[in-house]
Amino acid sequence: MRKKIMVATLFVAFAVITGMNVYNAQQSDMELSGLALENVEALAIPEQPDVSDCKYDPFYACEALHPTDPSKDKYRDRARW
Description:
Elements: H1 2-44, E1 55-64, E2 74-80
Antiparallel strand pairs: 1-2
């Protein structure tokens, strides 16, 4: 009888420790989700330079490439950044 109580106590202690570890792991993930969301929003904003910032130079061509859509690329002849 004493052996069964000891095994049951060890099983309960193991379950409690495992449950605490799972709970702590989930709490730290929630803190990261806000930072991850900010990163996704920052990466979603396209940063395409404007060709109006190009300076005149007869030997160069100034190109502003769109990050996802090549049809929206901008090109200015005889200019450079």
